[in-house]
Design brief:
The protein is mainly α. Helix content is 45%, strand content 0%. The longest helix has 25 residues.
């Protein structure tokens, strides 16, 4: 959850991303971005359906 303080709000979802031995910074960044986008949609859906009630 976003609040007035930088990097302070309550965490409501965390994506899990694997890191492979051959990964470099760019490949990890792409994998994290993909996971975050998917997680964002899933989290909004949970809020909209009441599966994740707000406020926390």
């Amino acid at each position: 959850m976003v609040d007035a303080e930088y990097d302070h709000g309550r965490t409501i979802a965390i994506p899990e991303v694997s890191i492979e031995p051959a990964d470099d910074l760019a490949s990890i960044e792409r994998r994290v971005m993909h996971a975050e986008c998917k997680l964002f949609i899933e989290t909004i859906r949970k809020i909209a359906t009441g599966a994740l009630p707000l406020p926390l």
